[in-house]
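Re: beginner question about structure tokens

> Can someone show what the tokenized structure looks like for a real chain? I only ever see the sequence side.

Sure, here's an example I had lying around. Input first:
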Amino acid sequence: MIKLRLSDIEAARQDPSTFRGGSPQGSGRGLSMMRTLQYAIYEYHKRGNEPNRAVKHLEAMFHKNFKTEIRLPQLVDLLNQYHVRFQALAHTVVDAGMRVMIPVDIEFRVTGEIGRLDLAPGGGYAVWLFASTTHPWRSELRMPLIQGHFAEQMMVQPDRVTVGFYFFDQGQHDSAQYSSAEVAAAYSEARALGAALAL
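And the corresponding structure tokens:
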């Protein structure tokens, strides 16, 4: 069984030989500041979207894991900005910080973490990843795979699911929707990638 992280798919598409046998092991480094911010956001959603409790959670984690407080005010500002942007969407959170395993075929699984799964006001679902900086993402193979996976999990058609990012540097949500044909093509390419990784 081969498992590949969602975040590694693009690199694996470029050079499957690097990823044969599964994703390379991580660096083993401790908690990053952006990861600390993400955990505070998960706490924010688990506690009824209450920003003050999320800030306290962020401060407690920060003091536990970092020696300097230089970046703390910036992270608090990013958390507060996130609260404003999330409230403006008027979405209902179904889950946050959830782990997923997408079965591409019997021998290949793609795994990772989803920042947020929302129920949109007009119906349908919105799946969000988090990123510290804006980048071109719409051609990434993982995005239609995620859309197809959640359409199946929520038992809706792919056109009832959008996927996208919340970018902390811009304080913006950015989403897209892939057609059923694009989702099917993504799964076909992923199966070919799985076969290349198994060589």
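Each token stands for a local structural state, so reading them left to right follows the chain. The two ends are 13 Å apart (CA to CA).
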